[in-house]
Write a structure and sequence with these properties.
about 25% helix; about 90 residues; 5 strands; about 35% strand; Beta Polymerase, domain 2; 4 helices; five-stranded mixed beta sheet; alpha+beta
């Protein structure tokens, strides 16, 4: 999975966190061409937790489809503080 965007969401993104608040991140990734062309189901979304960090990420095609249909969780990604962004040139190398 090649992550191209990672943003902070949830209470910490809006300055509403408490000492017990975890970190919530949304991301967008590019699936390698070999996986997209392979027979079988294609990855569309990934959700995982590491310690006090929750991650939800979408394959770029799924992300754009959800954005076009005004999915509020995805739309939040457009206004959230960017934690990491990768230029497409870096993904290709």
């Amino acid at each position: 999975m090649n992550m191209i965007l990672k943003v902070l969401t949830g209470s910490r993104a809006y300055g509403l966190e408490t000492p017990e608040s975890d970190f919530d991140f949304h991301g967008v990734y590019v699936t390698p061409t070999s996986q997209l062309l392979a027979i079988g189901p294609k990855p569309k979304e990934s959700i995982w937790k590491e310690g006090d960090e929750d991650f939800q990420s979408w394959e770029i095609g799924r992300f754009l489809d959800l954005a076009v249909h005004c999915n509020p969780t995805v739309l939040e990604t457009f206004v959230a503080p960017v934690e990491k962004k990768i230029l497409l040139d870096e993904v290709e190398n």
